[in-house]
Amino acid sequence: MSTTPTRSRSPYVVMGVVLAMYAVKVTVKLSVGHAVHSPVITGDGYHNASDILEALLVLLTIAIARLPGNSDYPFGRRNIESVAELGIGILLTAAATWIACTSAIALIREFLPGTYTSLRSTIPISAPQPLRMGSAQFPWVVGVTGGSAVCSFLVSQYEIAVGRATGHGSMVADGEETRGDGCIELAVCAGIIGEYAFGAPWLEYPLALGVAVFMTRTGIEIAHRGWGGILQRSIGTEHETAIREEAARLPGIVAVADCTTFRVGRAAVVIVKLVTRLGPAATAHVKAVFLEWLAAYLRDHEFPESARYVRFDPPPKHPHRVAYVVAVDDRGAVIAPTVADATHLRISDVADGEVVRWADVEVPRSPEDVVALLREKRVRVLRTLDAPSPQPSDAETLAAGAGITRERVPSCVTDVYGL
Amino acid sequence: MSEIPEVPIPIRTVAVRFRDTRTGGVALRAAARLARALGCPLDVSVPHPATRQSWTADDADRVTDAVRARIGNDLAFAGATRPKPCCTDAWSNDALVVDAELARTQRDVTALALTDTEFRMDDRTAPLVVPIGDGESGITGARVAAALAARLGAPLRFYHTTWRNPECVSEFPNDHVSGAADTVLRIARLAATAARVPHETVIETAPDVTDGMIRAAIRFHASCVVVARGGRTGKGSYVDQLLAESPIPVLVVSAPNPCPEVRP
Q1: Between A309 and A53, where is the model more confident?
Q2: CA distance linking residue A29 with residue A42, whole number of Å
Q3: For the segment A130-174, what is each residue's pLDDT rounded down to a tens digit?
Q4: Interior CA angle at A378 toward A372 and A383, to 5°?
Q5: Could you tell me how many helices (H) and strands (E) chain A has, helices first?
Q6: Cβ A104 vs Cβ A209: under 8 Å
Q7: Three-class SS of residue A397?
Q8: Which of A250, A387, A413 minimises the CB distance to B218?
Q9: pLDDT digits (tens, 9 = 90+) for A353-373
Q10: Do B218 and A413 touch (CB under 8 A)?
Q11: Alpha-carbon distance A414 to nearest alpha carbon in chain B (angstroms)
């Protein structure tokens, strides 16, 4: 009992139902079509026979798309769905164009016979053949075309729903194509009723024109979707913006460096690069929550399957060297107001605004040697205590001349600067 | 356990150690904002070595100017006091100290650990998250959080993750909550109601307690996690695990618990 809903939503079961429907349609339409000498119904029967081939191709596509990924195909083979979508979209558009042309010509023949004759003299157009049937065949013919339309609508809904739920774009496309077939069958049915009841078989043609417009739109949409999948189009700016906004709201995130998305079949692939100073433990929590959110977001926005990757990088460290002027004695070290008051230069490596390493070097005797040392150590900034009215020593004046910036710091306590 | 929330001891000062580094700047700005939000003076200390020369008015002026320059004019409010030199970590029990190291090492100080994340106290929709267990520490945390949330205008989110009761087959986490935890949750809600703070309770059966607390706080877009240290834990306190792993600021409440006064 509990497995029934799962089975009924299996793509293979759905395609089995589709194949069975087409087999019945082909048998019935060819039999009835030959019996009533209806080229429309017989033609539709052959059309359904080609649909069987298409359904088999969709079945094969699904089987290939469901193969798990491996080292050769890291995202699996889901992109084959896009190829199938593109193919179905093109076929549907072509069929719609053919229907539109046929209907337009039939309408011209009906209402503009002169134009039709001149058209036939320039373009080789085969004359549409009217139905030949009596009152005995009428209910059968209406039953076959009407019933076929109803079957098409029901099965297409089933196919589209399961295709969307399982992420098989080729199945959705096939379902949409089946729905188009249903519309055409309805138009044919209307034409048959029109001919029989009102002697107006042309009723079928404006209806078929409307259906052709609808089918063209659907076909272009399907082909566009397939094209986007093949060329790995992004999942959409609006989704990328939403993902970026959510990422920026996460704790400890300095910036969202990148958000790249693309489609593989109906699946979404999202790669987000975040800038953070958080440690590995905190990052793991942020990542877990964000991935959870991302999966739910994509599921809620027509991407039942997705691959999500989040990478964390530290911000740029802007490493540079500064030198603190310190006076060191047996009580410890303090920042001195000038080089002349100092015993050492504390050469410090700064990364991301913090001192990450320091080493003391004794202050050389001459100011020139101080500057030479600072230049040799690639020091960019010389820091001294901001004491009341300190006169810069010769070394500081020379350092300023050598392009080394002097900065005054507010406290003599080395701890304040992470030293 | 007491049923009626006690009148909290007021937080009278927000304190921070002056450090002229990037992380020191983050702590200083957070302390200044917190002091402004709570209407408390900002106490900036400089760890001045006792063995060195005495602290002069000039020293204080320089550091005061530096503090004002770093926190910006909008936060350099009248309540900000001049820096106080100190050579020991002598904090009064009515101070809230913004210092991650202190939160880890001093049990008798109420300290806020920022862990490289800004305290988003300006976002009134960001809740303060209070993890609740089955001990008194949950009540202490809830009282402080309720008082703080009232002053910040932020909502509260009580979070409880419960071990599954093997005798209960229910899938609903609420059905697995122990009697003691239920009582603590009830008192926590009373504290929030008394402080007129909008509050919500979330109960889960998370696979791991610390992971559950942290991930829930991230999901809620919390501005801060408020916890109090319990007296019973022998090894691996949740507070220490939170401090080690949380990407969200953690406020660790000391015992006895100081709270900001709730003012209408």
Answers
A1: A309
A2: 6
A3: 555 567 777 877 888 888 899 999 999 999 999 888 878 889 989
A4: 85
A5: 12, 9
A6: yes
A7: helix
A8: A250
A9: 899 999 999 999 888 888 899
A10: no
A11: 9
Residue A347, min C-alpha distance to chain B (Å): 16
Q: Provide CB contacts within 8 A for A390, sequence distance 6+.
A: A337, A338, A384
Q: At which residue do the structure tokens 């419960």 appear?
A: B162
* Partner residues linked to A407 by β-bridges: A383
β pairing state of A306-313 and B258-259: unpaired
Chain A residues in contact with B48 by the CB 8 A cut-off are 413
**Within 10 Å of residue A86's Cβ, how many Cβ atoms?**
22
In this prediction, residue A127 carries a pLDDT of 63
d(CA B249, CA B120): 9
Considering the entire predicted model, what is its pTM? Answer: 0.75
* CB pair distance less than 8 Å for A410 and B22: no
Burial class (CB in 10 A: 0-12, 13-18, 19+), A138: middle
The residue of A324, A408, A413, A419 whose CB has the most chain B CBs within 10 angstroms, and thus the best one to mutate to test that interface, is A413
Measured in angstroms, the CA of B15 and the nearest CA of chain A are apart by: 15
What are the residues whose beta carbons fall under 8 Å from the beta carbon of A199, sequence distance 6 or more?
none
Q: What is the pLDDT of residue B185?
A: 93
Please report the ipTM that was assigned to this predicted complex. Answer: 0.88
pLDDT tens profile B117-172: 777 777 888 999 999 988 888 888 999 899 899 988 999 999 999 888 888 888 88
> Cβ of A252 and B116 within 8 Å?
yes
d(CA A393, CA A367): 8
